[in-house]
Amino acid sequence: MIDLKFKIVLIISILLVCLSCGNGEGGREEALTVSAAISLKDAFDEIGRAFRAKSGRTVNFNYGASGTLQRQIENGAPVDLFASAGERQMDELEKKGLIEAETRRDFARNSLVLIVPKGAQPGIAGFADLTKPEVKKIAVGNPQTVPAGQYAEESLKNMNLHSRLTGKLILGENVRQVLEYVRRGETDAGIVYATDARTAGDGVAVVATADEKSHSPIRYPLALVRDGKRAEAAREFADFVGSGEAREILRKYGFRDAAEK
């Protein structure tokens, strides 16, 4: 049973997508709809503009937590292509036959970092410092729906810290919300992707990077959605994301190449 809050979010998302995908003047081709992890927003906005300049096709982006986007697709949201911040969400859609598995590919990687509000009093220099009594609140993504939260939970468990921090964790609905909690000083620290920390400019300070051996590789996969109505355009966009031009844009925003170790 889908809860009322999620029903409302799903209905609004579908309405927004439908409104944005209406036929343009002169019967021009409808826009391509891409559901993408919110950590991709800045990079994908620029990639979308570059794709339009090259192909003439318009892309409408629906950003959110990867788990939320997964549920929208499972419940029939009109989406042509899905770009996730985690493999688990794509794996589950593939098991249910909701994506075109042969189109699935990894296109970027990321890192997990510990951030504090800019100008915060010294005292947090690494993950172990989160156990200090003066550290009261730590923002992380909800591991049920937010891949960054999933990786954070995995990393903290492997560092033998998670059980000691449970009472301090403040769960965000997506990684950008976690970033805002820290930027506004509402929490003492937070765990986000390195790319998200960059978007905050001087609003936060990165104090540590999680050892990549402490969590699963942070890979970003994309794939065409099985019931998408614009498969040809979706394939073109997927190919463009893998192009040298798009990879340069992704690197500009701090993402690493998918093949990078």
Structure report:
α2 packs antiparallel against α10 (244-252) and α3 runs parallel beside α4 (87-95). This protein has helices at 4-20, 41-55, 66-74, 87-95, 147-158, 162-165, 175-183, 194-199, 231-241, 244-252; strands at residues 32-37, 59-64, 81-83, 105-109, 112-117, 138-141, 169-172, 189-193, 204-209, 219-224. With 261 residues, the chain is of the alpha/beta class.
Keywords:
10 strands, 261 residues, five-stranded mixed beta sheet, alpha/beta
Taken in chain order, the helices and strands follow as HEHEHEHEEEHHEHEHEEHH
How far is the first residue's CA from the last residue's CA?
A: 41 Å
Radius of gyration: 19 Å
Gross morphology: elongated
Average pLDDT score: 90
Strand order of the largest sheet: 2-1-3-10-4
Helical content (DSSP H or I, runs of 4+): 25-40%
Structural class: alpha/beta
Figure out the total of helices: 10
Q: DSSP strand (E) fraction?
A: 15-25%
List the helices and strands and how they pair.
Elements (H helix, E strand, L loop, with lengths): L3 H17 L11 E6 L3 H15 L3 E6 L1 H9 L6 E3 L3 H9 L9 E5 L2 E6 L20 E4 L5 H12 L3 H4 L3 E4 L2 H9 L5 E5 H6 L4 E6 L9 E6 L6 H11 L2 H9 L9
Helix pairs in contact: 2-10, 3-4
